[in-house]
Amino acid sequence: MLSSISSLVTLALVLIPTSVQAHCSIALLKQVTDRYVAAQTAGDVSGLNFSSTGVYTENFQPADIATGILSQSLKIDNAHSIHDTSECSTFTQLVVTDPTHPYVIGTQIRLPSHGGGGEIAKVETLVTDQGDWLFNATGTLYWTQRENWYEIPKDQQDSRETLRKAADAYLNKFTDNTVRVPFHFPCARLEGGIYTGTGSDTDTCDVGFPTGIPMLNRRYVIDQAYGAINVMFNFGGPTHSPDSHLFRLEKSGIRYVHTMTVLKCNDLPEAPCNA
Ligand SMILES: *[C@@H]1O[C@H](CO)[C@@H](O)[C@H](O)[C@H]1NC(C)=O
Ligand SMILES: *[C@@H]1O[C@H](CO)[C@@H](O)[C@H](O)[C@H]1NC(C)=O
Q1: Could you say which ligand is closest to the alpha carbon of residue 54?
Q2: Exposed e or buried b per residue across 160-171, where buried means at least 16 C-beta atoms within 10 angstroms of its C-beta
Q3: pLDDT in tens, 11-39
Q4: Which of 4, 33, 74, 134 is deepest in the core (most CB within 10 A)?
Q5: CA 6 → CA 2, 3, 9, 14, 83, distances in Å?
C-alpha cells in the first residue's frame, strides 16, 4: 500500500511539467495583435477572425463588435502589444491623438486555450477619451514613446508567478497599505496622461497609495519575454469603473505602470479629476 502510494507520488511528480507549456505560438499571437491594430485602423473587423460565438465587451458591457469602436477607422499614433503564449491571450494599448477625437484604448483578446487556428473567442476593450480620469492622449503618447520596453534576455526573465505576484501586490496595496510592493528603482507611473516621474534615474513609484479601494474581478495577460503583465478589473468595487493596469518588471521589480480608467468626472463629482 505504502509503496503504491509512493509510486503514485513519483508518477505525479514526473507528470508535473517543470515549466509551463506554451499553448499558442508567439507567431499566432502576433498575427492576432497585428490584425487587431489593422482592424481598428481600417474600421473593419472582417479580417479579425472573430468567432461567431465570440464574446465582445466595451467598458465591461456586452456590445456588438460590428458597431462598436472597431467599426470606426482611427489614426493610431502608437500601438503596444504583449502576448501570453501560455494562456493564448494578448493585450494592446492604442493611443490616438487625432484632435477630432483623441482616444487611449486597451484591449485584451483571448483565443481558445489550445490556440486553434486563431479564431478569437473574446475581446474586452476599454475605451477612454476626453473627460475620463486623468485622460490626456498627448501625454500618454509622449511618455509611452520615451520608455524602453526592451526584450529581456532569457536568463534574466522573471517567472509568470513573479510577474503576477508583483501586479497583485501593487493592486492589493489599495486595500492593505502594509503590503510590500517590489518596486524597481527607477520606476514611473503613467496614470492616464500624467507621469509620476521625470523620465530620469531618480523616478520612484513609491509615492503613496490611497486606501479603501478594492480592485476586483482581475483578468491577466502575462508576457515573460517583456516582463509585462496587464490586469483588467473593476476599480473600487464589484461593478465600479473598468480599469486596466499594464506593468513592466525588470529584475523582479516594477519599472513602469500604465493605467487607464473609465470614469467620467461628471459621473462622480468626488473623483480627483483635476489632478
Ligand atoms: C480563423 O480561425 C479558424 C478556426 O480556428 C481557422 O481555421 C482559420 O484558418 C482562421 N482564419 C484565418 C484567416 O486566420
Ligand atoms: C497633456 O500632456 C501634454 C504632454 O505632456 C502637455 O503638454 C499638455 O499640457 C497636457 N494637457 C493637459 C490638458 O493637461
Answers
A1: 1
A2: bebbbbbbbbbb
A3: 444 444 444 555 899 999 999 999 999 99
A4: 134
A5: 6, 5, 5, 12, 39
Q: Are 206 and 220 in contact (CB under 8 A)?
A: no
Ligand with an atom nearest the CA of residue 27: 1
Are 242 and 262 in contact by the 8 Å Cβ rule? The answer is yes
CA of 80 to the centre of ligand 2 (A): 21
Instruction: Determine which residue's CA is closest to atom 9 belonging to ligand 1.
Output: 117
Among 218, 208, 182, 185, CA closest to 275: 208
**Nearest CA residue ID for atom 6, ligand 2:** 139
Q: 138, 144, 147, 273: which to mutate for ligand 2, most atoms within 8 A of CB? A: 138
Pocket test for ligand 1, best of 25, 49, 50, 53 (most atoms within 8 A of CB): 49
The dihedrals phi and psi of 80, each to the nearest 5 degrees, come to -130, 120
Q: Which atom of ligand 2 is nearest to the CA of 139?
A: 2
DSSP state of 175: T
Residue 160 has what DSSP assignment? H
Question: What's the pLDDT tens digit per position in 188-232?
Answer: 999 999 999 998 999 999 988 999 999 999 999 999 999 999 999
Q: How many CB atoms lie within 10 A of CB 129?
A: 16
**C-beta of residue 112 within 8 angstroms of C-beta of residue 119:** yes
How much of the chain, in percent, has pLDDT values that exceed 70?
87
Residue 95's contacts (CB-CB under 8 Å, 6 or more residues apart) are: 76, 77, 78, 79, 103, 104, 137, 140, 141, 144
User: Which domains does the chain show, CATH number per domain?
Assistant: 26-144 (3.10.450.50), 154-274 (3.10.450.50)
Q: In what order do the strands lie in the sheet with 194-195?
A: 194-195, 183-191, 253-261, 241-250, 228-235, 215-223
